[in-house]
Each structure stands twice: as C-alpha cells, then as structure tokens.
Amino acid sequence: MTHEQKPFVVIYDTTLRDGMQGIEITYTVEDKIQIAHKLDELGVDYVEGGFPLSNEKEAEFFRRARDEHFDHAKIVAFGSTRKPGRKAEGDPHIEALLEAETEAVIVVGKAWTEHVTKVLKTSLEENLEMIYDSISYLRSKGRIVFFDLEHFFDGYKADPDYALKVLRAGTEAGAECLVVCDTNGGTLPHEVAEIMGALPQKELAPLGVHFHNDTGNAVANSLMGILSGAIHVQGTINGWGERCGNANLCSIMPTLHYKMGYPITAGPHLTKLTAVSRFVAEKANIIPDKRQPYVGEAAFSHKAGQHVDVLLKAEHLMEHMDASLVGNERRILISELAGKSTILKKLSRYGSFTKDSPEVEQLTRLLKEKEAEGYEYEAAEASFEILILKTLGLYKPLFEFDNYHLESFKAGSADSKTVGKLFLCAEDNEVMGAAVKVGPVEALDAALRDALLPYYPFIEEISLTDYRVRVLNPERATGARVRVFISSRNHNGHTWDTVGVHENIIEASWQALVDSYDYYYNIFVLSQRNTQ
Amino acid sequence: MTHEQKPFVVIYDTTLRDGMQGIEITYTVEDKIQIAHKLDELGVDYVEGGFPLSNEKEAEFFRRARDEHFDHAKIVAFGSTRKPGRKAEGDPHIEALLEAETEAVIVVGKAWTEHVTKVLKTSLEENLEMIYDSISYLRSKGRIVFFDLEHFFDGYKADPDYALKVLRAGTEAGAECLVVCDTNGGTLPHEVAEIMGALPQKELAPLGVHFHNDTGNAVANSLMGILSGAIHVQGTINGWGERCGNANLCSIMPTLHYKMGYPITAGPHLTKLTAVSRFVAEKANIIPDKRQPYVGEAAFSHKAGQHVDVLLKAEHLMEHMDASLVGNERRILISELAGKSTILKKLSRYGSFTKDSPEVEQLTRLLKEKEAEGYEYEAAEASFEILILKTLGLYKPLFEFDNYHLESFKAGSADSKTVGKLFLCAEDNEVMGAAVKVGPVEALDAALRDALLPYYPFIEEISLTDYRVRVLNPERATGARVRVFISSRNHNGHTWDTVGVHENIIEASWQALVDSYDYYYNIFVLSQRNTQ
C-alpha cells in the first residue's frame, strides 16, 4: 500500500444511472436535473446521467441537460459496446451515445470469458474488436470515453490473460480511463489489492473502480482500489443502487479528503455533503438511514452523560472528526444518562443558565420522571422543547382541552369505522370537531384539525409524515404501555418529532399530536409574530 | 496478507451490550433471553449479555440466563477495570462481574494515554496496574477473561509504546484474548493492516478486533484484522450499535465461511442467518434494511428480463453466491414457485400432498395475497396454521362474530377510559361481553373473555404475553396500516404467536386476538377431545 504519492482522484457519480437500479428508486427527469445540479455544486467531476437507449425518459434527460449550466461537472451518457458482427458506426447503442451530445460517454464491455460466450454469444476475439471499435469510433467523434469493464474481477479470477487483453483493447482504443467493475459484488478488499497490484498499470490507460456492496465492502474496496493505483472512483449518493447498492460516495469522499489526503474537486465543498445526501433521499422518497456514516442523523450522536463531559473537554477523544466538516451536527441525545451539561446546552438559546439554576434542576428532575414513565426525547426533540417552554413559563397552549370521545365499531363482515368527536376552547371559543375515519388515531387527528382550522389556518401547513409505535412492556400484552412517535413537516420542508406514552394508544397518540401542533404554534407561528 | 493458514475464528456477539447503545434500540430482558437463544442456535461462540453494574435490568438478564440452557454459546458479562487507587477485590465494577456468575467476563481498559490522563485522571502507570489487577483477580476466580482495549488504534497512533504496554499488561495478567477496539470508528482498513502487522504478536495473548462503522469500513476492518492475525471478532447482528453501528456479523460470518475459508462454529448454521437477522429486527422494532448485504430483502433481487434469462442459464454469472446458503432467497419479478416446498412441509401433518395438489396452489396464492397486504407469518405461525385449517376445511370457529363497539373518552385532566362491548354467538347462544379498561385493545380482549368464559372455561388457561405493533407504511402517518403480533401462552408454558394487519389498530389487534383463541381451541382443545 503506497502512501508516498497522493494523485488527484476523479469522483464519478452514477446515482442517476446505476443508482436507478436500486429497489424503490425512481426519479423524474426534473428530479434528475436537480440532483445533477446538487452534485455539480458539491464538486463531483462526472455525473452519469442515464442510459439514453433504454427509454425515452432517459433520452429526455440529456436533451434537457444540454441547456443547463454546470460549473464544473460533466454529464456522461452510458451505453454498451456495438453488437457482434456490426460496425460501430450506425450501431444503435453507439448512435444513442452520440445523440446524447455529451462531452463524455461511458461504454460498458465484457471482461469475463463466460459472459462473452454464453451471454453475448460471440467469440472472445470479436468481443475485443467490439470494445476497440466502439471506443475508437466515439473517440474519433471527439468524445471523452470511459470504459466500464463489466465483471472484471470475476473475469480476472477465471482468466487473467483475457481480462488483461480487454484492458489493452481499451487502452489502445484511447479510453480515458479503464473502470474495473465488480458487477456481482462478491470481491473482497484484499483481493482488490492483489488483483490490481498484479496489473501492468504503466502499460495501461489510468484505472478506475466501480464496486457493489454485496459483502458490505464497497467503500473499503474503492479505497483499496485507489491505494492500488486507481485515479477514478464510481459510486452513488447514499450508496443506493442494485441489490445492496453501489459504493457510497458520501463515505468515500470525506475519507479521501479528510483522512487520506487525496486531492478531490469536492474537497472544499464537503460541508454540503449532508444536505446533498438528504436532498437525494427526499427526491427518492426514501427515509434517510440514520446510521449512515458521516451524514446520518446518528453519525455524531452521543448518549451517555459521562461521554458528554469528555466531549466538552476534548472533542477528539470521543469523535473521529468534526461533524461540521461534512455539514452534519453533533447530537447529544437526551436520555436517562444525560447530564446537566446536556440540558444546559439545550437551554442556552433561552438565556444564560448555570448548572445550579433552579430551571436546570427542575428540568433534570422532570426528564428523569418522564423517562421513567417511558418517554424518550432522543428522537422527539420538539416534545423536549415544549417541556423547556413549560418550565420557563414561556409556553402558550394552542387550545384548552375539554374532552374527546371516540367510537370504534365493526359489525359482521363490514369494515371497522371510528367516529371521533372532541370539544375544546380555542381563542375563547367553545369548539367541536368531528370526523369519521377507519382507525381511532386518524379520527382523532381529523377531528382536532376540524376544530382548530377556523381559528388557526396555519394548521394546513402541517402534515404528519411518520407514525411509529413501540410497546414498552410487552409482557403486559394488551394492557402494555405504548410509546408513540409522530414526525411532522411544514410546507417549507422543516421537520420535527414528538412523543407520547400511555397504556391507551389513543391517549399516547393524542399527546404526540398535541405536542406537534403546539410546537409549531410556539416555535414557528408565535415567534414569527413576535419578530414582525 | 496471509492466505496460507486459516485459523479458527471466534465469533463474539455484542448485540445485547454495545448494540444497545444504538439509536432507538431497546430490548426487554425477555427479548434478550430470546435473542441469546437464537445466537446460540446460530453457532455464535460468545454472547455478551450486558453491563451488570449499569442498572438492575442488565443484572436481571444474568440472573435469568443462569437457568437457561445454551448448547454452545457462553454468556459474557461486561464491565470496566477497577477504579484508580483501589484493589480489584471489593471494587464495584469487578464484583458486579463476579456476581453475574458467568463462565466468561470482558473487562474494558484504556489504551490511549490522553484518555488515561484526561478522562480517568490517573497516571499511565496506575492504568497498567488497574488492567493487570482486574484481569488477574478475575482469572484467580476462575473466569475466562477477555480484555477490550478501548481506543486502541487512536492510542497506538498517538503513542505506540504505551499501547504496546497495555497489550503486555493484559497478556501477563492472563487475558484469553486482547481485543483491539476502534472506539471512535475513524480507522481505515489499510491502517488496521499496518498497525496490527507491526505488533509483536508472538509475544502477546491472541488478538481480537472490535470495529465501529463511522467511515463505512467496520466489516472490511474486521476482515483485515483477521487477515492480520486476529482470531476473535466482535460485532452485532445487523450491525446495529452506537452512532453508525458496530461491525455487522451478518456480513462477516458468511464472508469468513463461504468466501475466505476460515473455520467458524456458525459455519454449518448460516442457513439460519436471515431468520436471525429478522428476528432481532422484530425484537428491536426496527424495519429491516432491505439493502443489507446477504440477509436483506433486496440482496438477491433481480429485475426481470435479460438478467433472469442469464440467471436461469448459469446463476454464478449474475450472483456472487447462492442466497439459500444464508437462508435468504432470490427475488425475481416473474412469479415463482417460491414457498411451495415450505407450504408442503407445513401441510404434511394433515395428509400427503404434492406440489400440484389444489390445496397447495390455493395456499400459495393466499399466502402471496396476505403477504402483499402486510401479513407476515414467519413470527406468527399460529395464524398460518389457521389459514391451513381454513383451506383444508378443518377449521372450527370458536364463535360467530356479530359486532364490537368501543368507546374511548377522556374529559379534562381525568385519565382516559375505554368501554368495550361485543356480541357473538357461542355454541348456539347469543352472548354479550363487556369490560371497562384504559386502552381499546385491553377492553376488547376483556370483553371477549367476558363473553366466552361461561362457554369455554379453558380460556382461563390462556394468557397473552407479548403485544407488538409495527407501522407498515409510516409515511401515511396516522392513516398508516399497522401490523400487530400477539404472543400467547397456556398454563403448561406452551406458546404461540398470531398476527393481524389493518389501518385500524383495533381491528388489527382483534384479528390477532381471535386467531390466538381460535388456534388454541382448534389445535389444543379439539384435538385433545378427539383423542380422548
């Protein structure tokens, strides 16, 4: 493993092409354009935009991308080598690449003999010709041509001589970079070092790497590839892609830049990384993985009180890096073990307090009581904010509760229904809300909205986006206490989380619902009024 | 990297201890006992059960575990070295470890000078004494003692001589294994190889490794650690743990066994791996990651078309391994014979059937429909048994349902209450049941028992022991569909599990409740009557 030289590493993103093979992943053309801009702002060098031959939507992206301005990133069109027994000119695969009108294209070809003979059903010699012809023809049309060697690692294990011939064909044809791919995802880091170390790299065009995560090693394989001579790395944002995904650029980029000292264009822009990760998650409509390295919500979270004391003394003793370098933030989880220093930090926005302030004492006691009852504020900071407001005497309730009444019934084979009614006092008016829904929590929320909307039109800005239930003492079976978490979002994309706990799931949900509306009212609506 | 020899590798699971530090992870004592049994069946060598000193719940696990039978796995209690300036004997940390009454214990000590001086606030020399004393005292009490070297890699980078002294202190004190830990998670695979390669391993006790996933390299680091001489690897099921998690044993075990040829006890049991992964997810109430290597739902998925054609020709061309080796299955978009053999197996107790029997066809179709709606029978076999009885025309309902009606209300600051009423027909009698409870599910169950008890005294033999709720499409918030699991037990300790799915949690719970009583009636009560 070489440390003496640190060549520039090209970051090549395939979120919009290979990433689209992932389960549950689809992007509209508009999504793809927006994601391409985010990648450009992040300093990604190449953005693989799609496979123009595969369908009209893919081709449309390239037509639209032509009119877009990108500061640095180059858009790349993906396609395969010409078909056996044809010329490159006029071959539909090759022509589709040219019609994309991008400065750079990428051509995928076979590097495993069995794939050539059994899948392409052609000769090993013809496969080499297909690769040479396709790349050199595209070069003659002025394109930068990357060459993806599909199944390279498996192919090398089966027949290293042939895999090397494929690399040489790409080199001779003028490929910008030979991207060795682990298409089935079974290659391990030490094998990457062995195989890449055995290649006559000086006789070849520069190498790039493309890994899949089937053994959980896609990131490590990519780093090993770079340590073994590659100067180009492919991956996707959040690591989403076929099966277990592609190499995760959100892990590779900060590791190369901050930990290994490799120059990358994205280096100075990595403070945007967390935002880009979440933007792509939003477009993919996938809940971001809290445990994701560097950019996940839990990546810099700390639980215990002792830990927090150490953190405040010397961060490097408890954190492998500063969260802000990747645009993330440290989260001190409010938990049983949380010390006063945690609470002090949360209180700091409301004034200056010390460990001996009565408010700090009171909150510490309250937190202990609540946590003993089963409340958990780690994932429900908005509910904790309400506790703070109440303790400081700053809390303004949205309404005064009178009563709710829910009737759930089911007769014979008809589906169940719930009627929800509630009475409350909003801005000095006695109000009733009512709704009929399938389940009780849905009915309660609908009745609450029905009651509040005439007085607080901002209620319409709020949507509930997540609802989770945890049984706390399941051994009490149907009499167990349940904890409910609700996530809410406003029209501007701001999100917050609340919690409720009770033996009655309806009451637990009611607490979390009321906290959500109350939080929005106190933190957004009232503070805006005050600053106007 | 050595390939010539493949020593036996010890698998050490810390799901129940370090894994509990993960965001949103909590297990009851009963959950922990059940998970320990699953790990034992899988062939895990050591199961770290918790930190007995930290709280009563942790200590209770060890009291319960003493009476449990494990085929192979040894339970390990976790704790730290003695406090500075004390003796090991009588130190609360050390005594708590002895009181756990396990054959093996693990002691964590500091390997980074700054942590010794700034966090422990003691001298470097005293830290070495603390380590030596603690381990040798525990050894003198007949325990197998593992030694966790906290922050080893960061400590080694800062002061390799001191880190080596810590290793030697553990060796001299008689530690079974020196577990080098990357506590902050920033170490990279090539650094693991360099640092471990530089250690005088022949002069030391055997090495083990413990990695965190903060750069996405915990699995690769573990493999690199083993290639660099470690013979013990720590991790968690699904990789859940503090921040970005621990090294994922669900990736490490199949890679060691199937791809690297290292002998592990779990080797012959890895066909259970996917089931264990999902069992732990169920207990943690976390939706399993579909993209997880080896055990994820998408790990062996293929989009239809060309891929599938290639697959049917030669699987190894498109898959890095056979999914069934880890108990997972290939998923392709064309309809498949998936599940038929499982169904056949289940049916065998009711007679002889073949894959072409109409009952098998019918059950396969039904199972597909139900699973598409969100039912899951892996953890609810009693509900599946009822589907079988219904399909075969053998099902005898316990009662005929007429209607249920639940009223939940809360007024002012009084606690919420639910009145449950239901009408049904039992043994040709029209019966009403009624009850008042806090929550709706409790009220429904109590009303059902009220109605049935006069006709079926055996109802008293049944108690409900577990109730779990999972929101299936959380993005639909309070209108989401929920899945309820209920575990039941009779007076003889026999247990069974049932499932219900609906947008209305009451209705989902009702389905699982009725299945539970029906199952007991059909399988226990009626069959006993028939054999008398």
Set out the fold topology.
The structure is a homodimer of 532-residue chains.
Chain A: E1 10-13, H1 29-42, E2 46-50, H2 56-66, E3 74-80, H3 92-99, E4 104-110, H4 113-120, H5 124-140, E5 144-150, H6 152-158, H7 160-173, E6 177-182, H8 189-197, E7 207-211, H9 218-227, E8 232-235, H10 249-260, H11 273-284, E9 301-302, H12 305-313, E10 331-332, H13 340-347, H14 358-373, H15 381-391, E11 400-411, E12 417-426, E13 429-437, H16 440-452, E14 463-471, E15 482-489, E16 495-502, H17 505-531
Parallel strand pairs in A: 1-2, 1-8, 2-3, 3-4, 4-5, 5-6, 6-7, 7-8, 9-10
Antiparallel strand pairs in A: 11-12, 12-13, 14-15, 15-16
Helix pairs in contact in A: 1-2, 1-11, 5-7, 6-7, 8-9, 13-14, 15-17, 16-17
CATH class of the largest domain in chain A: Alpha Beta
**Residues in helix, % of chain A:** 25-40%
Separation of termini of chain A?
61 Å
- Count of distinct strands of chain A: 16
Side by side, the strands of the main sheet of chain A go 1-2-3-4-5-6-7-8
List segments of chain A where confidence is low: pLDDT < 50 over at least 5 consecutive residues: none
The general outline of chain A is: elongated
What do we call the CATH homologous superfamily of the largest domain in chain A?
Answer: Aldolase class I
How many H/I helices of chain A?
A: 17
Rounded radius of gyration of chain A (Å): 29 Å
Strand content of chain A: 15-25%
What number of structural domains do the residues of chain A give?
3
Class inferred from helices and paired strands of chain A: alpha/beta
Please outline the major beta sheet of chain A: 8 strands, parallel, barrel
Mind telling me which CATH architecture of the largest domain in chain A this is?
Alpha-Beta Barrel
